Amino acid sequence: MDAAIIGIGMTTIEKNKIACNYADLAWEAVNKALADASITIDDIDNVITTSSDFWDGRTISCMAVGDACAVRHKNCSAVEGDGTFGAAYGLSRTLSGDYKTTLVTAHSKGSESISSIITNAAFDPIYERSLGLDMISASAIQAKQYMNVTGTTSEQLALVSCKNHKNAKDNPYAQLPMDITVNDVLNSEMIAEPLHKLDCSPVSDGCCAIIIANADFVKKVKAKPVWIKGVAFCSDAYFMGDRDLTKTIALENAAKKAYVMAGITNPENEIDIAEIYDAFTYQELMWIEGLGLAEYGNAGKLLEKGIFNRDGKLPVNPSGGLLSGHPVIAAGLYRIAEIVLQIRGEAGARQVNAKRGIAHGVNGICGQSHCVWVLDKEK
Amino acid sequence: MAKRRVAIVGTGQTNHKSHRPDVNGQELIHEAVVRALQDAELSINDIDAIIIGNMDHFEGINYVDCWSIDGSGGYHKPIMKLTTGGTTGSTLAIGGYHLVASGMFDKVLVIGWEKNSESDTTGAITTAFDPIWDRLVFAGAISGLAVEAQSYMAKYGATDKDGARVSVRDRKHACNNPYAQLRKEVTLEEVLASPMLADPIHLLDVCPRTDGACAVVMASEDCAATITSTPDWIWATANRHTYSYLGDVNWGELDSIADASKELFKKSGINEPRKQINVIEMYQPYSLAGIIWIEDMGIIPRGKGAEYIWSGATDMGGELPINPSGGVIACNPIGATGLIRCAEAAMQVMGKAEGRQVPDVNFAVSTGFGGCMWTDMILHGKNKPNL
User: Fold this and answer.
1) Phi/psi at B44 (nearest 5 deg)?
2) Nearest CA in chain A to B135
3) What's the CATH superfamily of A3-114+204-220?
4) Contact B66 A215 (CB under 8 A)
5) Cut 0.95: pTM above it
6) Are B65 and B52 in contact (CB under 8 A)?
7) Gyration radius of chain B over CA positions
8) Which CATH superfamily is domain B127-208+232-381 in?
9) What angle do CA B63, B68, B70 make, to 5 degrees?
10) Residue A93: which of A228, A236, A255, A254 has the closest Cα?
11) Tens of pLDDT, residues A136-153
12) Looking at this predicted complex, what is its ipTM?
């Protein structure tokens, strides 16, 4: 594909950024991204913002950040869902030839939201909502099924938490850098069997921005480009009862398509780093398998061998992942930004040796809809 | 960069009504999708990706892209959601265009829908505005529209009678459209005698609340050639979501449609819009906008809009018919409304508009309106656009 990411900007992810409204968050992320790309807002010819009316408690939630993203005299649009989907639409606008540079933002303030009510509204109003299902209870059902079918253990889940919170210690943007043990996870409060508190991502505030440019524009700027090699997204069925929750068919479809676009035939060996949507510990393992980075049911065992550690063969979430900071709508865009930093060799103390990486985002309940990005140092 | 031509090859709409208790949301969507696929003579298996939108707080469903699957046909397909308020439908159309133009997908299904009967429309729209500066002053959509109308009237001396003439036009046109919700002719006197909702906007000057869905199939040039001999080519898109705060708006002129029109016409070499454009499907939520916005579009000089409307030039059979479908005043399932404008414009270009067909359409314009006085625009053409 003839497009690259030439700039990224992230706010720190925090429990409650009480001093900032949505526009303040976007303003910070956008200006950081422009500075990162060494360009000005006048070089941006169209803007995609990503937000959620539900999470923001505002109808037309994109309106809150329009000024801060300088849409006034530009073409613009707004995606609702994870930032990886917003970026996918932004990419299409660049590739269409209508635009040379697309600014993509995604923001969320979990501190102003009530997660259980908001995610309950994702369920069918007649058959499911009154059961009290929300993101955590539904994920607990999926975790239990996955563990039963694959033999993955609570200890293995806990190891994901230990790894990611430890990784976060070297990420200045992360909300929860911690040294914890498997026992700490297992002894933390049981939120929804089998998910302990430390198996769950926190409530977070944050905003991320990236700038996508076409190949001609990339030549004209000083910024180090990170090339977009493959992007694909795919949705599974809606009703939980219609799905085999232990399987990740939609993710497999999206990943396969993205790998074909990128010319990848053996993802386990050809991918150097992955930033994955680990909203819960078990999800990191499931998504690793769905992405073709481990055999089905085997991710937990590979994790125990240290394969996914920062110094392992395939570092997963060296940033600390969502477990260390989960601004809902922005989370996937943070994954892309982290991969960009890693490929540029600018990830500081969390740097790994990476030329090619994948970033991953999720929409809906229990990973119904996935978006996969393959990014590369080379065009 | 390589550019690809994109065409609309099929459209479908539900029979829009104030209340569709016979269907749930997914079923409403399904109705429009099936009709669009039938129109294009395609099956859902031919569709590479889906783009869908509505306004969340009207139906109270989170992650609508995921929820819609059983109605949209998005099972194991790429699907994403766009939403920008009133402009949602036109935003979706522009989105579908880019997904195809990018080369990422060859055939994209675009879906806009709303079940307004399940909503507290004004309650939901009020929350769009800044909670500290704007929300307490402007309630819902109609208050901002009334401010616009008053500002224009103060400047150019127009009256609510001028607005009523636009309403008479659109409501008459709607009688030719079997999908429109309100198909009843009204007189100037009836409009002016209808209850005053927000001065100068009477009940019969403004759009209703509607349950409805619209679906449009877009295809790349190669695919379009195999689907239809009369595709509607998308020549250009342009939009402006100019303001975030209602207090910043340049009241009495719609800056967003002025700027977007300039860009749209420049991109496609239109220098005499009044002569070159054959029909407009305008997202015109209340009557006086039908006068103000054609001035902002550069079709008529400032202050001359009312005169142009009274001349009958925008009626069916006139120089530049506007809203042959009856427009938004006759039917407004909000998340679908902008896409219905796009579909109706496409039908005009494809020669499929039946009783509301304008003869010999070469260029059509469709628009979307919403948010904080925002505009989306698409130029549709019978002939292939230059690349």
Assistant:
1) -60, -25
2) A58
3) Thiolase/Chalcone synthase (3.40.47.10)
4) no
5) yes
6) yes
7) 19
8) Thiolase/Chalcone synthase (3.40.47.10)
9) 145
10) A228
11) 999 999 999 999 999 999
12) 0.97
